[in-house]
């Protein structure tokens, strides 16, 4: 889910920033369409590759940590057993309950290692899939990022009208993604929606300002 949200937000911000910057600079709609689609595909691939590398690195770290804990349990089992005792003692367990937990955890080698990875390293026990993360990041980036460009696929040179429609679509996308984030992480839906909306609006505003300044400074049109 985090891959979808990340890709969707970046995709919409990327393309709508291009729309805003081009509108501020006074470029024709065709330029927006060409720049938007080109950046959408190139940045989508870049995002997917970056996420693939990040998840792969995370997986390699988890595998290294697992091998390390396996070696520690094999070489110094009592030291690792004491670590389990300390972990659950810090959670408020004591006496016979604590010893029962320690005996139960250390009786199962897999459970023992998983507990150490989760509690000591803070690692998720769900094995990440780099290819799946890259794929869903790319799909979300391209599909959602395409939405602000939709008005520019239709004939006509009325940039102001196309920009208005694109702005409405982008605003709806930002707010919807925020709602999705709020639902997934069980936070305030309205706050999450408006937070993402403001994030996207701020990025688009910067792009619009840059386009306007450059147009006035260099007469780009």
TrEMBL record:
Pfam families: VIT1 (PF01988). It is found in: Endomembrane system. Its main location: membrane. The keyword Hydrolase does not apply. The chain crosses the membrane at residues 12-38, 134-155, 167-186, 192-214. Keywords: Membrane, Transmembrane, Transmembrane helix. It is a multi-pass membrane protein. This is VIT family protein. It comes from Microbulbifer harenosus. The lineage of its organism: Bacteria, Pseudomonadati, Pseudomonadota, Gammaproteobacteria, Cellvibrionales.
């Amino acid at each position: 889910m985090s891959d979808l949200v990340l890709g969707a937000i970046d995709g919409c911000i990327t393309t709508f920033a291009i729309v805003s910057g081009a509108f501020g600079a006074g470029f024709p709609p065709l330029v927006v369409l060409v720049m938007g689609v080109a950046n959408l595909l190139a940045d989508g691939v870049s995002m997917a590759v970056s996420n693939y590398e990040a998840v792969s690195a995370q997986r390699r770290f988890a595998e290294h940590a697992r091998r390390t804990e396996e070696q520690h349990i094999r070489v110094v089992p009592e030291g690792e057993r004491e670590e389990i005792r300390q972990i659950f003692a810090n959670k408020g367990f004591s006496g016979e309950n604590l010893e029962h937990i320690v005996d139960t955890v250390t009786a199962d080698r897999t459970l023992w290692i998983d507990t150490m990875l989760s509690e000591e390293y803070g690692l998720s026990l769900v094995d990440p899939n780099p290819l799946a993360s890259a794929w869903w990041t790319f799909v979300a980036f391209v599909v959602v990022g395409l939405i602000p460009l939709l008005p520019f696929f239709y004939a006509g040179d009325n940039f102001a009208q196309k920009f208005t429609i694109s702005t409405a679509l982008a605003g709806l996308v930002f707010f919807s993604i925020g709602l999705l984030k709020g639902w997934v992480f069980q936070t305030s839906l309205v706050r999450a929606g408006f937070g993402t909306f403001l994030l996207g609006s701020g990025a688009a505003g910067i792009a619009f300002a840059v386009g306007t300044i450059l147009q006035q400074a260099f007469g780009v049109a």
